Amino acid sequence: MSAISHASHHEAAPAFWLIADQLHTRNETERLAYIRLGFPPGWVKIVRGAFQLSNSQLETLLSASVSTLERRQRQQRPLDLVGSERLDRVATLAVRAAEVFEDQQVAQRWMMTPNRALNDQTPLALCVTEIGASQVRRALAALQHGGVL
Questions:
Q1: What sign does the dihedral 16-46-144-141 (CA atoms) show?
Q2: How far apart are the first and last CA of the chain?
C-alpha cells in the first residue's frame, strides 16, 4: 500500500484539526519559518484523509506528483516551500471556517463543497493561490456577517 494512501477519514480528521490548531497559535513569523523548513511529510496523509482527496486533487493542491510525495514520505524529507505554504493556507482557512460555523465537521464539509460564491470551486481548491484564499476569506466574512452563500 502507498505511503500516502488514504488514511481513514475518522482517523485523519482529528489529526488534521490538531495540526491546524497548533499552526493557528503561531504568529506569522513563526509560521513563515516553519513553511521555509518544510512541513513534515506525514501531514500529506493526514490532509488527504481529512479531506478525502483523490490523487489528482492532492497533486494539484501540493504542486507535486504522488510519486514525489511518496518518495519524500519514505525518505522522511519535509515538503517543499510551495506544498508547505499551501498546507498552511488550508489549515488557516479551515480553522477560520470552524470559527464561523462553530463546528469542525461542518467546516470540513464546507471546505470540500463547490460554492457558487467561489465560481463553483471548493474552498480547498482555492488554497493553491493566495488570491483564491482571499476569496475564501471574503466568503467566510460574508457568512459570518449574515450573508448567504
A1: positive
A2: 39
What distance in Å separates the CA atoms of residue 94 and residue 113, rounded to the nearest whole number?
Answer: 13
Closest CA to 35 of 83, 71, 98: 83
User: Does pTM surpass 0.90?
Assistant: no
- Residues 54-99 pLDDT 10s: 999 999 999 999 999 999 999 999 999 999 999 999 999 999 999 9
Q: Which residues of 69-99 are buried (b: 16+ CB within 10 A; e: fewer)?
A: bbebbeeeebbbeebbbbbbbbbbbbbbbbe
The domain spans of the chain are: 9-144
State the Cα–Cα distance between residues 115 and 122, nearest whole angstrom: 6
> Distance between CA atoms of 79 and 10, rounded to whole angstroms?
24
User: Please, are residues 132 and 72 in contact by the beta-carbon 8 Å criterion?
Assistant: no
Closest to 114 measured CA to CA, from 86, 91, 136: 136
Count of C-beta atoms within a 10 Å radius of residue 13: 19
